[in-house]
Design goal:
Length: 323
């Protein structure tokens, strides 16, 4: 009788311990959970943008999708979009602009329901980067440098004076000017809305500038190629420091930020930094593939889009409170 009672107590204790362990494990999984959104499963997402409280995803062969419910569900929006490989997107108050692989720039004034071509004056139709500054739109091309539009993309003028290399991989905007990253690893700055450019290049780079991001007084630049690295400048590009501590293999495709935290999508996963990009922490657990081409924040979520995985989202609070 005593032996039976002891066995029952022991079984109850083990069962209780397993239940607690399962609960704790479940809580940990919830904390680190990335959730796959609907409508883009298996599709490669190349860029993400926000316009009029809606989210947009550019893809490698399916055109553009949009979401009106904080990224939970996505539907195609490509009427008039004759090139379905979308490399980059940017928005201002009036238009959403899309840069494509072969057919140049498209714009939409109705949240992507319809698109119109917007190439008058652009010499090369392979668009690698886009940026908006006040009433101006800038487009970086593959072989013809950079173009500027002062009329919402109706017409464009070449504005690459001072940039010797014609592949404009990335663009970023701050109060101190416009920054352009090129295929040869150069970075250039314009303080007169693109009329002239001056070099602020990173020394000893051996690859192209895949992404630029400006966060307050900090400029982040990622190089890809023979040696992939992340660099950081706090003096408008006069000096640079290597800034990829914590990244398993640097090479950033996209940056974004929220609440004093910078997020980075890389070939090797999703990372975040709470010290202005000095060091990085990986937060890729739960993602099916670590190659991330696009990141964006739309509170309360951060989103990651990448190679053949569609768009995944995660609550910002899960990352910000579990550093």
């Amino acid at each position: 009788m005593k032996l039976s009672l002891i066995l029952l107590i022991l079984i109850a204790f083990i069962s209780c311990k397993k239940s607690l362990s399962s609960l704790e494990s479940g809580e940990e999984e919830a904390v680190t959970a990335w959730v796959n959104t609907n409508g883009l499963q298996g599709i490669t997402v190349t860029c993400l943008a926000k316009h009029n409280n809606n989210l947009f995803a550019g893809t490698s062969n399916r055109g553009i999708y949009w979401s009106t419910d904080n990224g939970a569900n996505w539907k195609p929006r490509k009427n008039g979009l004759t090139d379905t490989l979308v490399r980059t997107m940017v928005a201002n108050d009036k238009f959403l602009f899309a840069g494509t692989e072969k057919h140049g720039v498209f714009r939409s004034s109705d949240d992507g329901f319809t698109w119109e071509i917007s190439n008058n004056g652009i010499g090369n139709r392979k668009i690698l980067s886009l940026a908006v500054v006040d009433n101006y739109v800038f487009a970086g091309t593959m072989k013809n440098g950079i173009y500027r539009s002062s009329d919402q993309g109706s017409t464009w003028q070449w504005c690459g004076n001072g940039i010797p290399f014609s592949f404009i991989r990335s663009l970023a905007v701050s109060d101190s000017g416009i920054f352009a990253g090129t295929e040869d690893g150069g970075i250039y700055r314009s303080t007169d809305l693109g009329t002239t450019w001056n070099t602020v290049s990173i020394p000893n780079t051996s690859g192209w500038i895949s992404s630029l991001y400006i966060y307050g007084e900090t400029i982040l630049a990622s190089s890809e190629g023979i040696s992939s690295k992340v660099y950081r400048s706090t003096d408008l590009g006069i000096s640079w420091q290597k800034s990829d501590s914590g990244m398993s293999a640097p090479g950033v495709y996209a940056f974004t930020s929220a609440q004093s935290t910078i997020f980075a999508g890389t070939y090797w996963g999703f990372f975040f930094s709470t010290d202005n990009g000095v060091s990085w922490i990986e937060a890729s657990q739960g993602l099916p593939d670590k190659t991330i081409y696009a990141v964006i924040v739309d509170s309360p979520f951060v989103f990651a889009g990448g190679y053949a995985k569609g768009v995944w989202r995660r609550e910002l609070s899960q990352i910000l409170t579990n550093e």
